[in-house]
Design a protein that fits this description.
4-stranded antiparallel sheet, 93 residues
């Protein structure tokens, strides 16, 4: 089974929350977090479209609120990969 302890540890340290990661299939993850009883569970499905030595193409499905939170994930990736190798394309309406 795959584990995502490094990313989960970073999120817990940086944002003081521990999300739940669920593997939906061999290319899709669901990341969920229940903040409180008054706030509904937030989740995002992340799908790996393609991967090569030079490129990882991801798509995600989430609400607008979660879309704003993804800035933290992009920041984590940005710290791990040289600047010239990271491009973020959005399909915002």
């Amino acid at each position: 089974m795959r584990t995502y302890n490094e990313i989960l540890g970073y999120v817990e340290k940086k944002f003081y929350v521990m999300p739940i990661v669920e593997v939906l299939d061999n290319k899709t993850l669901r990341v969920m977090n229940k903040i409180s009883r008054l706030i509904p569970t937030i989740s995002v499905n992340i799908h790996v479209d393609s991967m090569s030595k030079e490129l990882i193409s991801l798509t995600y499905d989430c609400s607008g609120i979660v879309n704003g939170l993804l800035g933290g994930v992009v920041g984590f990736i940005d710290e791990k990969i040289p600047k010239q190798q990271v491009e973020v394309f959005t399909n915002e309406k």
